[in-house]
Design goal:
The complex is a heterodimer of chains A (147) and B (423). Chain A contains six helices and five strands; from the N terminus they run βαβαβαβαβαα. With 147 residues, chain A is α/β, with parallel strands linked by helices. Chain A has one domain: Rossmann fold. In chain A, α3 links the parallel β3 and β4. Chain B folds into three domains: 179 residues, no CATH class; 56 residues, no CATH class; 145 residues, Heat Shock Protein 90, CATH 3.30.565.10. In chain B, strands 2-4-5-7-6 form a five-stranded mixed beta sheet. A two-stranded antiparallel sheet of chain B has the order 1-3. In chain B, a hairpin with a 5-residue loop joins β6 and β7. The mean pLDDT of chain B is 77. The chains are: A alpha/beta (147), B alpha+beta (423).
Chain lengths: 147, 423
Amino acid sequence: MILLAEDDPNDELLTVRALKKLGIGNEIEVVRDGAETLEFLFATGQHAGRDPADLPQVLLLDLKLPKVSGLEVLQKLRGEALTKWLPVVVLTSSSLDKDMVESYRLGANSFVQKPVNSTEFSEAVRNLGLYWYLINRRPNGKQAVAG
Amino acid sequence: MLSARAAGGAAIILAGVVLFSAAKAMFEPATPLSWYLPFGVLGLLQLMMIAALQRPIPVDKLESFAFLDVVAACGVIAWGGAASGRTHSAQLFLVGLAMSAAALVPWGPKIQAALCITVLAATQANVYMVSGGFLSGLAFPTLVPVVVLLAASIYVSYSLDRTRLAAGREELRRIAAEAEAVELNELLADNVAARTADYRAVNRELENFTYSVAHDLRAPLRSMDGFAAAVLDDYGDRLDEDGRDYLSRISASAQKLGVLIDDLLKLSQVVRVKIERREIDLSKIYEESFAQWRETDPSRRVEIKVAPGMIAEGDAALLRLAIDNLVGNAWKFTRNEDPAIIECGRLEEDGGYVYFIKDNGVGFDETYAAKLFKVFERLHVDRQFEGTGVGLATVRQVVERHGGRVWAESEPGKGAAFYFTLH
């Protein structure tokens, strides 16, 4: 599963559309703010019924999220055993170096600026899906907690 | 060392003391020995003071001098008065003492200095010698030579006093100026603090604004471009030529706005960023920039000449940005030339360097050269040569932030040359 934290419905649709072209459109879960992202991952609140050990392959994280910001989510994830090693790709409109540096400082695995150009955007999302979903390996929930 | 005037003064005082004593001993043999002792001591005291007064008295020492002077004056007056049986000398002594004491009270530097100078001026004119002499009831033959000598002594002492008083006044002025400066500085510090707070607030606002521009303006553009592309992609076959053309215009406009936002962000960075100077190889930056542009269009024939070893001092990131823009310009405006020729180098001028980049492209009308470096001013229509009109404004910012100057020369159809200096 790919977890997409995105509050902009247009960006969500474009991202999902690009991933669908890769044939992994059904593997996407979307959360719309920072708080929901944490609830999903730790199976609390509106996602209480979920199995928290069922971790996504990757979290595509927007920085400017309502309620809890992307950077706060990142910080929280890195402080918990379950999500300490969860691959997090920051996927943002921001072109500011400050955001990029801060993301890495808080433990992002990758930082990608969403291109305005639609071709470049689909290509970027496609590459992310290809690499993080199909190629990369990560510890599962049990291994993460045990480690 | 004593100055000539002070030495003369000392000699006269010494002679005055000796002659006065001698005359008194000669014409008034009844004078008791106890008369000479304090007189001699006071003479010595004055000699020491003349020696000490070679330099302007530091203002913090003024009061000690004034005190000594007054004590000496009052001492002689009181003593002379007592010897002659006149009683008001005791009151004089008390007045002098009170003035000296007043000079020692910390009223504040201005009042204290003024008081000290008044006391010094009043007492230093050898008042005590004269009044001491008169009050002790001198015989006329004693008085004549002594008064002449004392007059000379008064003159010398007075002229020394003038220097000293001038120094004192100077000191007073300085103290007043200092006090004023302190007040002004405090005012200035307050102003600076207020302005800094304002500036910080504005800067914070600007950063928030920049952040919003960086982030929020891009998202809708991506949607415009993205969904126009999606329509073309998914439903293109159901549209006619015009429909597809309109959609690609939406895409192109969105992309252009995206580039414009990026360029403006870069420009705002150039204005705000702190410059970090170090030695950099401009030739290398030119080469790298050309390599990037060549990748965008490998089929073009472009002759590039970059003078080797152009070492300069400046901010690497900013100069790279400026050079990217200049190279990009040259690349763009030589598009119709075959081969295009672009030359980068530097000339020595007035002990410094003038860097240039010349091309054989379309050039521009020099009438409008000043407009080139302003944001959004473009001399070519979009249709011919794409661009946001921010690039050369960015170049100018970078160059000016290095203390340099940028200018351009050209004639339509004969290529353009851009020059800049760095300091």
